[in-house]
Amino acid sequence: MSVKENIKLILQKVYQISRKKETPRIWLQHLVCEASGFVPGQEIYIKLNEEDKEILIQNREFEEGDSESIHQVHVSSRINKVSGEARPLVDSARDSYASVISVQDKVEICVYSLGGYSRVVVRPLRFKLFNTETFETPSDERIRLLSIAAGAGIGTSYFRSTQYFTPVQEIEMDEDSAENLKLNYPNSFLFHGDLRDCNVVSKADVALVTLPCNEHSSLGDGNQGVFINLTLAAAKIIKAAEPRIVFFENVPAFYKTRAFTDLQALLIRDYPYWIGPVKLESHDFGSIAKRERSYSLAFRYQEDMMKFRVPSPPSKVRRKKLKEFLDSKETEHEWKSLEKWLASFNSKADKNNAWANRSTDLTFVDENATMIQCIPKRYRSHCASNTYVMNPDKQQWRFLTVTELRRIFGIPDDFKFSIHTPLWRIYEQIGQSACGRVFRAFANEIAAVFFEAMLRVPSPEKKDEDVLPFELDADGQLQLLMI
């Protein structure tokens, strides 16, 4: 089936075929089944197409084909431990599948939908290193946004909340984050799998690139992308999508690595104009939480780069107190002993622990605090680099709740977390996201470039040999970009 047909491609997942009693196994997990509209107990139809090397699964009978190649199965289920709800699964193994798929090989699962009709196509992974399949998406005349390494989709939601952007594709590897993306962006195309396996890309106007920072941050392993190189795959996807502007967000150390310079080198022919990296602190933009990140942008056209205004902190931003973000006083919380926490922390010095000398000035704060520390992925741990809320008598402390963190980060009200996701994982997803204030500032400035471009008198196109790569540094100085 071609993505050019009337039926819409809404999800692609890549995974490795397992076996069931030495037989190739089709294993459609919750994300695929729910995107297809399959429900537990429902009868679905499976057809083997050996000629096209495809296994077709759909929720209605096939109109044509050899009846011997078609069989029916019922959708099974598993009870989710968090929500208590039964979630659909399809588990089918047959010797005949071996004519299309092989154990341990990678396959792509494509979900197509049109009204109440859904079709799932299982086939060997179709991947060409130097050729990426692309498609145009229907637009509501907003700026089309592609999110690479999208996480749970919080960064994407900041762009959408400006009302200038429409998400058209998200790419994410983590299963629970992918489920959250499909929940929040049901009409956008989702690729769930390793970035390096993505070979179907939507055309876009802007690419939001938030590659994993754990290889580069001070809390990570420091490998700097040497052993897991995602930049080559990211460049392939960006070049295929052909966005007008590429927006990068990451920890400051990322931009000093070979991973970023390699990415620049791969994109420089199509994107010769760069801004940044620009280091910004979210607290300067009025956030109560610190979050130092660096941002960079790549442009196809020099006029766009020259018109872009790097966001600067508001000069008279009002500093809010923590109590403005806290839940109501009637809310019940789990309080912990401050004395026990301090005893554990002080014992680290006896063990020569590197964390023993950490400052605790912002570790425990009351409701009148106007600054708290950066909320990391591991916020639910007991660590001096986190910030906890003290009770009025300063004898007990508690974690900030998810609803409180939503207010602090500025996560839009219409953004949802899956009811099937454990609480600890939601904390991680928030900690891996970004400051809503800074993201919206960049999103608005990017949108302004598109509005200005609509009114601009077209300039004569320059030949490739006439184009020199330029960079606008953090001080606003224009210089030749040397890579």
Mean pLDDT: 89
CATH topology of the largest domain: Rossmann fold
The CATH superfamily of the largest domain is Vaccinia Virus protein VP39
Outline the low-pLDDT stretches.
none
Number of helices: 10
CATH level 1 class label of the largest domain:
Alpha Beta
Helix content: 10-25%
Largest sheet: 15 strands, mixed
Under the CATH scheme, which architecture of the largest domain would be assigned? 3-Layer(aba) Sandwich
Can you count the beta strands?
25
Strand order of the largest sheet: 6-4-5-10-9-1-14-13-12-16-17-19-18-24-25
> How much is the radius of gyration in Å?
25 Å
Commentary on this structure:
This protein has helices at residues 30-36, 154-161, 175-184, 231-241, 258-267, 302-307, 338-346, 402-409, 423-431, 436-455; strands at 8-16, 18-20, 23-28, 43-49, 54-58, 70-74, 76-79, 86-93, 106-114, 117-124, 133-135, 143-148, 165-172, 189-192, 200-202, 206-209, 245-250, 273-281, 292-299, 336-337, 364-365, 388-390, 396-398, 470-472, 478-480. It has three domains: 8-124, no CATH class; 133-317 and 434-480, Vaccinia Virus protein VP39 (Rossmann fold, 3-Layer(aba) Sandwich), CATH 3.40.50.150; 322-431, DNA Methylase, Chain A, domain 2 (Alpha-Beta Complex), CATH 3.90.120.10. The mean pLDDT is 89. A hairpin with a 6-residue loop joins strand 7 and strand 8 (86-93). Helix 2 (154-161) packs across helix 10, helix 4 runs parallel beside helix 5 (258-267) and helix 8 (402-409) runs parallel beside helix 9 (423-431). The chain has a 15-stranded mixed sheet with strand order 6-4-5-10-9-1-14-13-12-16-17-19-18-24-25, sandwiched between helices. It contains ten helices and 25 strands. By secondary structure, it is α/β, with parallel strands linked by helices.
